Amino acid sequence: MRMWQDYMRKMPYAGQYYAFSEYCEHTFGERLYKIPLDIGCTCPNRDGTLGFGGCTFCSAGGSGEFAGSSSRSVTEQLEEGIKKARVIRPRIEHYIAYFQAFTNTYGDPAHLQTQYEEAASHPLVSAIAIATRPDCFSDAIYDVLANVSAIKPVIVELGLQTIHDGTAKRFHRGYATEVIYPVLERLQELNLPVVLHLMLGLPGETKSDFLETIDRINQFPIAGVKFHLLYLLKDTVLAKEMPQEALLTEEAYLDWLCEGIAHLRSDIAIHRITGDPPKDLLLGPAWCLKKGQVLNHIHHELKSRGIRQGCRYQERHTT
Hints:
By secondary structure, this protein is α/β, with parallel strands linked by helices. It has helices at residues 20-28, 74-88, 109-120, 139-149, 165-170, 180-189, 207-217, 237-241, 250-263, 291-305, 311-318, and strands at residues 32-37, 94-99, 125-132, 154-161, 194-200, 224-229, 232-233, 269-272, 282-284.
């Protein structure tokens, strides 16, 4: 795997933005598919360390609604996930083992290393992706990540959502934005690429707030981002606090997203451009369930606006 620093430059990409598929081709020489895993982790924002129930938009399943069952081994979850993936992505030959559910650096380091190494040993796994929070690292965890990355490439995904601490307090994120800075520095030293999760339409945030988040993360040593739409799920705190009318319309989402892509540094790969809400839990917005249609609308809007990733960023840094 190439160093993430190789991508701290303008990358050529075929479409209007640097897509995850192209990142995989540039990095691994082929397209990969993520297999979501659940290894029974929890979160300091759920177990009482920082709070209970997680962020206000989190359901009981947290971020792992599509992951396998933690009652099964990593290998069993991978085999089942690969079997399903071959039906919908028959041309994909290798996979990313994605430790998705909850906070996957929050636990006993020795146990976590065992789980990561089990995934890394699978012959069809080309890389490991670990979803976590920036307040859940320690020297022991950094050592584990370094050890596993010697076996297979490791990508670290951090749930930032926003750089605005006022917004973060509203949805009970549980840490200040400044917590991420030493984590990014240490992961950079370990040569581990970082993907930040960002959310559009957070309670009280405006388009300007979102673009400020983009401008800030452009200064970070990161390799990728995931864009998520805020949606309301059943039995969440946010569903009781936020009326559905306050959610972004599709038109607003397209506007925010396209401008965000225009402001985003061109070497930062976009691993996700919209969300996949669990249908049985979704309260709104209903339009996000038509993912294929939404993706078509995104690409059409980018073309109609003449937007290519980083075009606004480039303008600001060349004038």
